[in-house]
Structures are given as structure tokens and as C-alpha cells.
Specification:
It is built from three helices and two strands. The chain is mainly α. Strands 1-2 form a two-stranded antiparallel sheet. The two termini are 22 Å apart.
Length: 71
């Protein structure tokens, strides 16, 4: 896709997997990390490039600098 930098960030955050486990040894079961530690979740690059929908706040985007401030 031909995304701008802030659209790339939005795609990565919107399609990430929120189930981040506390231990690398347990990738499908076990304790989940706290929300403050996992952020948007684990990046799913395939889902990000395949998405047709982006959700982001255009007020937080400065088109002159290509910066996306809502972090």
C-alpha cells in the first residue's frame, strides 16, 4: 500500500495482537502482560499490509512534518 508514515503507524497499531504473554516460553497460554507493558500489542506485519481500514486521529497528524504525535 502507499501509506504515509502516520498511516503505517496506525496500521501497525490497529492490527496488532493484544495478547502478549509474560513468558516467551508460553506463546499461547499463561499469564498476559499488563496493558501498560504491552502497549498496542505484538505487531502482525501481514495483517498491517493487508488492512483496508485505518483508525487514527487526524488532529494529531502534522502533514508538514509527517509526524504522528499520538503515541
Amino acid at each position: 500500500p502507499s501509506f504515509t508514515p502516520w498511516q503505517v503507524k496506525a496500521a501497525l497499531m490497529n492490527t496488532s495482537n493484544p495478547n502478549v504473554f509474560a513468558s516467551k516460553a508460553t506463546s499461547t497460554t499463561g499469564a498476559l502482560t499488563a496493558l501498560a507493558r504491552s502497549g498496542a500489542g505484538r505487531v502482525d506485519a501481514e495483517a498491517a499490509v493487508s488492512t483496508r481500514t485505518l483508525a487514527y486521529d487526524p488532529v494529531d497528524v502534522d502533514p508538514t512534518s509527517n509526524a504522528y504525535y499520538n503515541t
